[in-house]
Amino acid sequence: MDPTPRIKLAIQKSGRLTDNSLDLLARCGLKYSRARDQLLCFGENMPLDVLLVRDDDIPDLVQEDVCELGIVGLNVVEEKRLGLAARGTTPLFEQVMTLDYGRCRMSIAVPEEFAYSGPASLEGLRIATTYPNILARWLAGQGVRAGVVTLSGAVEIAPRLGRADVICDLVSTGSTLAANHLTEVETVMESQAVLIRTPVPVAAGKQDWMDKLLKRMDGVQQVKESKYIMLHAPRSALPQIAGLLPGSEHPTIVPLEGTDEKVAVHAVCRENVFWETLERLKAAGASAILVLPVEKMLP
Ligand code: PRP
Ligand code: ZN
What we know:
Layout: E1 7-12, H1 18-27, E2 32-34, E3 40-43, E4 48-53, H2 58-63, E5 69-73, H3 74-86, E6 94-98, E7 104-111, E8 126-129, H4 132-142, E9 147-150, H5 158-161, E10 166-171, H6 175-179, E11 182-191, E12 193-197, H7 204-223, E13 227-234, H8 238-244, E14 252-255, E15 262-269, H9 275-283, E16 287-293
Parallel strand pairs: 1-4, 1-5, 8-9, 8-10
Antiparallel strand pairs: 2-3, 3-4, 5-12, 6-12, 7-10, 7-11, 13-15, 13-16, 14-15
The structure holds 1-O-pyrophosphono-5-O-phosphono-alpha-D-ribofuranose and zinc ion.
């Protein structure tokens, strides 16, 4: 008999998405051993292999059907999509879900002494970037004609080296820009981690595991911020209290022994519950308020 075919998932080798991606997989129940070369995580309890690669290669690996799944920044996916479209090639990767990490933005940044007064200031300049297609689309949308200098890395030093006048690059904390005396002036796009998959049908044995994995990922995403809240409340205050519970649909109302006026309310809140909410609940008549983290959820 054939061994179960293994699913291949590509993630970033070393960078801002790596730890969060491995953590997400662990939360989906994956136990893995990491190969000595650090480039592969072998799933021990699922037929899943995680390939650790350069993030820019991830859409290609799915495009070429080397991997069925990939986790990568939306900026990388979008750049690849535009590049393929320009060549008349159909992208063979679909975005399945946005993941709750890796938030950053792609921005135009200019040297500190640059007198910037809007996109028109970029007319005729040279802009260094690793994302020429996204930048070109933005420039066209702004009606600005500028030269795009495509670099494979170290974009932030291009102005100092005289290779470009300004840059277009990812900004997360802003410390790279600050260290290079650059000022952020325009947001070109917002980005975060996304899960992509091949549109090509996969073998039945793989498909079952893929469905299971996608459902678990979805579940993990949903519980991230979710809290289980329990409290006691006067019946008369229930409508007001229900209105205060963030993102909860159908609270469970439980009678309390020895009283008709008061009930217990249990609810799953799809958003984090802050102190302010607890204080408002209390003011509305709630007591014995308890907020618990949600470990797993399978809707
Ligand atoms: C980006 C970008 C900057 C840095 C900005 O690189 O090219 O170097 O992050 O982050 P900061 O605002 O927190 O300083 P990325 O991590 O995406 O690496 P890569 O371009 O090599 O994939
Ligand atoms: Zn990269």
